[in-house]
Amino acid sequence: MLIEAAYRAYSGQLLQAMIRFSRDEEAARDAVAQAFSKAWASRSRLEAMPEAAMRAWIYAAARNGLIDAKRRESRSVPMAEPPEEADPLSDPTDRMLIQSMLERLPQELAPLVRLRYYQGLNSTEIGRLLGIPAATVRTRLRAALGRMRAMLRDTH
After folding, report:
1. What is the DSSP letter of 95?
2. pLDDT in tens, 23-69
3. Does the predicted model carry a pTM greater than 0.70?
4. What values do phi and psi take at 75, rounded to 5?
5. Do the Cβ atoms of 33 and 11 come closer than 8 Å?
6. Whether 1 contacts 54, CB under 8 Å
7. How far are the Cα atoms of 16, 79, 85, 86, 145 from residue 94, in angstroms, in the given order?
């Protein structure tokens, strides 16, 4: 079956399936369009497949496109202005204690703690933002948390 014929035959059904899957019509339309674009790029291989296999390939491409888009959306951080720091603690004494501990951390560790625990960024996002490997971010976060635990033990 040709890609053009597959589009005419399946695009409406595929769109409805992707809307049900994502509950987001705009994202579903984008995913279907991307799936058929990918199918067009791979048309020589797909047109050699049985019709059922081609249909399954296109469906999987649309579904995977939706999943990837949702993942990107959930991880995107607007870079125009830095996100405001959330206040994870409502007790002023706890806030003061944590602020004091963050101020006593070495200069390279405190920003990592703020980005991870106040702004909710993961190690990959922090690494990309600071230009260091994600593994280095995780190592430094462990070191920072270890130092903060030691500071807590010293206060009690």
Report:
1. H
2. 888 888 888 888 878 878 877 887 787 888 888 888 888 888 888 87
3. no
4. -100, -10
5. no
6. yes
7. 51, 30, 16, 14, 16
Structure tokens at 79: 């870079």
Contact 116, 109 (CB under 8 A): no
Q: How far apart are CA 146 and CA 152, in angstroms?
A: 10
Give the long-range contacts of residues 100-106, CB within 8 A, separation 24 or more.
101/148, 101/151, 101/152, 104/151, 105/144, 105/147, 105/148
**pLDDT (0 to 100) of residue 154:** 80
* Residue 155, token pair as written in the block: 């206060």
Please give the Cα distance from 3 to 7 (Å, whole number): 6
Does the structure show a pLDDT above 80 at 155?
A: no
For residues 135 and 126, give the distance between their C-alpha atoms in angstroms, rounded to a whole number.
11
Res. 86: pLDDT tops 60: no
